[in-house]
Design goal:
By secondary structure, the chain is an alpha+beta fold. The protein has 2 helices and 6 strands. Strands 2-3-4-5-1-6 form a 6-stranded antiparallel sheet.
Length: 108
């Protein structure tokens, strides 16, 4: 799991809206593809899937006050798509956090 601190209070809906609007366009800018990631709001978490290529949830993002807890599927770790997607998500989380930015608290 990876934990990122946001230096701006956010709600899960704001994170979901930002990811659902910007994740695929930014991913395609870095690595053009015909596939689109699904971004789903489960109410207390955001789940990212790509059913055309991978089974199950690739990333699960949960908001815990000012921290994002990001769980990555163990079957999706060293794939080039995973590395690109993680970079894109980091950019989008930084956008959301504004001038305060983000901090990586823990990765493991």
């Amino acid at each position: 799991m990876k934990t990122i601190t946001l230096h701006k209070p956010l709600k899960i809906d704001a994170i979901y809206n930002h990811l659902s609007q910007n994740l695929n366009p930014l991913f395609n800018k870095h690595k053009p593809t015909i596939f689109k990631y699904n971004v789903d709001n489960t109410g207390n978490a955001i789940e990212i899937t790509l059913p055309e290529l991978y089974e199950g949830v690739l990333y699960r993002i949960e908001l815990d006050n000012d921290k994002l807890n990001i769980t990555r599927s163990e079957h999706y770790v060293d794939d080039v798509n995973s590395l690109t997607l993680e970079s894109v998500m980091n950019e989008l989380f930084d956008d959301l956090s504004g001038k305060g930015g983000t901090d990586l608290v823990q990765e493991g």
